[in-house]
């Protein structure tokens, strides 16, 4: 499936070709170098004051931790994410070492997750970020400390085919990628006055 973004100006292929499939190949694997590269990319994400608030719990299919992560997913995501080559849960530090709220911890995790996703594209893989998981179940399952918050689950793998997917998911996979127009995104002079 070609899901290259339809943009007003050309974008780098890492951005234009990034999308979040559900149809993943249950036979695909991620080798050690690819797996490490995903988290090395996340490690080099910018963060407020270089606080580096992002942490990940991650595993590849066939490992017990993969099954434990899969067990925290919502019913809808469990149905397709088991075909991923790897699963991860992104966790944000919410309290700093002084016991104060961590400024921009969630934002730092988001930047790290985006780096991970773009590295997946660079590796010829795809990643699908999910809010549909039980954050408290993840906290308990992995003994996440109180000063960290599970925020996102991520499925990583190679494209599969649509033949074995439920029809409602096939419809989602085949939908064109749509975004609000650029005029709704960037303003000048005052709120609502489009820059472009």
Automatic annotation (TrEMBL):
Keyword rRNA-binding: no
Keyword Oxidoreductase: yes
Pfam families per record: Nitroreductase
Ranges where the Nitroreductase domain occurs: 16-63, 75-157
CDD domains on file: TdsD-like
Keywords: Oxidoreductase
GO molecular function (one): oxidoreductase activity
InterPro entries registered for this protein in UniProt: Nitroreductase, Nitroreductase-like
PANTHER family: NAD(P)H NITROREDUCTASE YDGI-RELATED, NADH DEHYDROGENASE_NAD(P)H NITROREDUCTASE XCC3605-RELATED
Family from the record: Belongs to the nitroreductase family.
Protein's UniProt name: Nitroreductase
């Amino acid at each position: 499936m070609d899901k290259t973004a339809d943009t007003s100006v050309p974008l780098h292929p890492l951005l234009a070709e990034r999308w979040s499939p559900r149809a993943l190949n249950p036979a695909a694997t991620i080798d050690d170098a690819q797996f490490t590269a995903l988290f090395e990319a996340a490690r080099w994400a910018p963060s407020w004051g270089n606080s580096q608030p992002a942490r990940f719990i991650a595993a590849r299919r066939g490992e017990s931790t993969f099954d434990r992560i899969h067990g925290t997913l919502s019913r809808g995501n469990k149905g397709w994410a088991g075909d991923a080559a790897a699963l991860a849960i992104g966790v944000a530090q919410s309290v700093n070492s002084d016991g104060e709220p961590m400024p921009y911890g969630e934002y730092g995790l988001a930047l790290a997750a985006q780096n991970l996703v773009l590295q997946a594209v660079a590796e010829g893989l795809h990643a699908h970020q999910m809010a549909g998981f039980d954050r408290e179940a993840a906290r308990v399952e992995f003994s996440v400390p109180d000063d960290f918050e599970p925020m996102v689950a991520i499925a990583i793998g190679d494209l599969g085919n649509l033949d074995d997917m439920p029809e409602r998911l096939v419809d989602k996979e085949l939908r064109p990628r749509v975004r609000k127009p650029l005029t709704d995104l960037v303003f000048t002079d005052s709120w609502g006055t489009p820059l472009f």
